[in-house]
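Sat 14:20. Reprocessing the chain from the morning session after the first attempt stalled halfway. Input below, unchanged.
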Amino acid sequence: MYQQHKKLIIALLAAGGSRRFKGAKLAATLPTSQNAMILDSYAKLKQLTQRVNIEGDTNLELELVVILGGHQAILQPLLPDTAHCVVNSQWALGLSTSVKCAAHYAKRQQASGLMLTLADQVAINSEDYLQLITLWLQVKQTVASEYLNAPGVPAIFNHDDLADFSMLHGDRGAKPVLMKHKAQNRLDLLPLDCAAWDIDTRDELERWKQE
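Finished this time. Tokens:
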């Protein structure tokens, strides 16, 4: 049976000002990989795109884009020259602007879906992301990680759902959209406790190094 070609944009959100960290958080080195946090997250996702595009479903195309903003001058040189970066000029207005930036890019690319990921979710690996994509392909609707008894990112939204991001303002990410979909029974969840590990402060980074 013929299967329709699908294009999934994977957006790595890395535009925040890291105010609580008091510095370029995503430039901090992780003990697990000895890479900067942003490069560690990028490498995991790039590995995923190469694996799926080369070895996986030939009807699924993955494209990785990094959303930069605050600390762009520090972070972009840490990424490979081949990394595709989009600059969110409104990053100082909060996380919602980065989510909208990613959604606008996915629309322009006429993508089938958009996966939102955070560069500071240090415990997630390529297999976790692959499980989420597999679930999305199976259920054909919005899917999200479930941790701390609530849905969250990484999450994948269908093209027709991207208009829902217009409701976001300030420093709110995709959670309101996910809660709306959950209330309407339009959300499937993947238990992913490791997604609860995100780095916001220097103390949290030190605790992660001791794990």
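Strands lie at 6-14, 60-68, 85-87, 113-118, 142-147, 150-158, 187-191.
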